[in-house]
Known about the structure:
Layout lengths: L2 H10 L4 E6 L3 H10 L5 E7 L3 H10 L12 H7 L3 E3 L2 H6 L5 E4 L4 H13 L3 E4 L2 H18 L3 E3 L4 H14 L3 E9 L13 H8 L10 H8 L2 H14 L18 H4 L14 E6 L16 E6 L3 H9 L3 E2 L5 E6 L9 H10 L11 E7 L8 E3 L6 E7 H7 L8 E5 L14 E2 L5 H12 L2 H6 L3
Parallel strand pairs: 1-2, 1-4, 2-3, 4-5, 5-6, 7-8
Antiparallel strand pairs: 7-9, 9-11, 10-11, 12-14, 13-15, 15-16
Helix pairs in contact: 1-14, 6-7, 7-11, 7-16, 8-11
Amino acid sequence: MNLHAKLLEREAAGRPVTVGLIGAGKFGTMFLSQVRLTRGMHLVGVADLSVPRAQSQLKTAGWPGQSYDAASLADAFRTRRTHVTDDTAALIAFPDIEVIVEATGDPATGIRCALAAIKHGKHIVMVNVEADALAGPLLARRAQEAGVVYSLAWGDQPALICEHVDWARAAGFKVIAAGKGTRYHPSYHRSTPETVWDILDRYLQIKDRNSINPKMFNSFIDGTKSGIEMTAVCNATGLVPQSGGLRFPPASRFELADVCKPESEGGTLEKAGVTEVTSSVDRSEKDVPHHLAMGTYVVFEGETEYARRCFREYHLLPDRSGKYAALYRPIHMIGLELGISVASVALRREPTGMPTGFRSDVVATAKRDLRAGEILDGEGGFCVWGKQTPADLSLDSGFLPLGLAHNVKLRRDIAEGERLKWSDVAYDDNDAAVRFRREMETAFGSRNAAAEAV
């Protein structure tokens, strides 16, 4: 790995990798804490809806005040300081920025910013996995056509899982399953921003409730974020969803190879070559010892007796049969690691994960019985959660993607657990995100998804 050496070369040449950050939330702030300390990298500008908030986040991340007081983007570029603005379009258009990091978390905003970055010849690091799940395959295709790189964000679990899969395949192993850990129980699908505290208080000691966004946190609890992230993994690696979506089997890190293998081999998976998320609690909500709640994993097959013998000799984590083994990473560091993606796209023109087909979707699914006339409130809200669904099934059934299940009115009653369809809501045909998603559906039908599997 030589990214650091390449960054030092750029530093020595007086041409550090130049970056623009959109969104100074938690992920963005974690990146801020490290980019200032990364030799060969210069954060030229930060764009956020609230300039005071962004300035406060820079201070929180350890930036001296004089380092982000540049009067303009041009001044920031010239003096190696950072400009803070609420003008996202100006940041993206600034000619001396090479890489745009989109970290807003809003799918429509992510699509708009990615398209603008591509138009202006910028590489795009898509922290906004919600936008990637909604329309990433077409965004990646547009970037390739324009000669720029579209990449998932290192430090976030999807990119780390993609690296696991690539490692296994490059070493000649057949990938059986890949994914992450989380805290899951079937009842959590009903969780709302009000009831999420009943779950969070059991394992997190959050003294200041005003310090977090309960709707955002609820997306992790109710199963939505897992569906979004595993969709990103499928679309980037060629793994596919299980027909009924994620099963969330309880498993410790030492049980991964036994649990995450096909049912026909004694495991819990529908078949080989899928994504799965393991739970850190069992179905009685008791903690699983040595769980993988913050980590990522890959399960792979030893196709020869010799390889299986090596699994034992080198203390891998094999299943009881010795046929399968697991590799895991116990943690992910989110924005603290994001510089790996920035350096990779700028210096190698290589993404740290990129959609290559439309294999998986995230479908809006009723948390409770819904009534005609209700207004959906999107990810992490009171109405729907996001269920991972095979893309061809989603297209054939006309299911409504979760990323567009916000601020739209229901046309009919929906039963709890039912997946919503486009025809169930009054959506705006002229909305830019709707149009782009519809364009992707046309460009990546089920035939394309199968043909582009890797």
